[in-house]
Amino acid sequence: MADPSPARPSSKPLIVVVEDEPELAALVALALERADMRVQVCNRAAHAIKFLKKNFANLVLLDLMLPDQPGFDLYGDIKASGISVPVIFLTANAEEASKVHGLDLGGDDYITKPFSYAELVARIRAVLRRVETNQDMNLTKNAKVSDEPFEFCGAQVTPVRLEISFADSEIVPIGRKELGILSYLNGHRGEIITRKALIHSVWGDHADIRSRSLDQYVVKIRDLYTRKGLDLGVFRTVHGVGYIYDPKRPGKKSS
Q1: What distance in Å separates the CA atoms of residue 166 and residue 63, rounded to the nearest whole number?
Q2: Taking a C-beta distance cutoff of 8 angstroms, is the pair 18, 48 a contact?
């Protein structure tokens, strides 16, 4: 079983098993490891959320009856923490209302005890395949090729073509990260956006928020608009915090 230190890159998916019954957790871990998966067992909700905040996981197998917190509440904490990970609920509660509630919350599957390990492995693999297929459309964590074009400071951004079209008919290609930044700003108009929120949205939950990569990409965007003679005054730096994009409140020249 995996230790709680940050996992090294591996082709084997990491499954976090949140289960307080030691014998069952060990059997599940053995079955998944035999299926060529890596496993981290957490026997408490507090352990699980701590691990997920520091490590990337491909999937969480979540028991609903935990000693320190109900599984549905832990699922809410995972989502509230901005951790994007598929979750399969695992429980002895076979009532339809509980299943419906779990799926309505956003769970990817719901398995009731007792179960066969072959079925468990098959359903985990099905969720992993579905997630991988969905991610094929992603240009960044927050932007997809299927996103609709949008206007940003007098230019048209077209995600499917990774392009910005200007009023003088020039079409300029942009990179994925620039698109992700513009998409996030466009989707949060009028809000102060922290550096952490923007970095995690574009680069992912485990990106280094101390990196200066964001600043470099913002400079590239500003330079492009400046070259085209467009004012980015509505896209402003909030010093010590992050940025704000507020088209309804034209302000000072961008900084």
Answers
A1: 52
A2: yes
CA distance 85 to 51: 13
**Domains, in order of start, for the chain:** 14-135 (3.40.50.2300), 150-245 (1.10.10.10)
Rounded distance between C-alpha atoms, residue 233 and residue 255, angstroms: 8
Mapped onto helix, strand or coil, the DSSP state of residue 60 is: strand
C-beta atoms surrounding 16 within 10 Å: 23
Indicate the pairing of strand 171-173 with strand 155-158: unpaired
3-state secondary structure 89-140: EEECCCCHHHHHHHHHHCCCEEEECCCCHHHHHHHHHHHHHHHHHHHCCECC
> Measured between alpha carbons, how far is 109 from 89 in angstroms, rounded to an integer?
6
Q: Residue 49: which H helix or E strand, with range?
A: helix 45-54
Chain CA centroid to CA 230, Å? 32
pLDDT by residue for the chain (255 residues), tens only, comes to 444 444 444 578 999 999 999 999 999 999 999 999 999 999 999 999 999 988 889 999 999 999 999 999 999 999 888 788 999 998 887 676 776 777 778 888 989 888 999 999 999 999 998 887 665 556 677 787 778 999 999 999 998 888 999 999 999 999 889 999 999 999 999 999 999 999 988 887 767 777 788 999 999 999 999 999 998 899 999 999 999 999 987 555 444
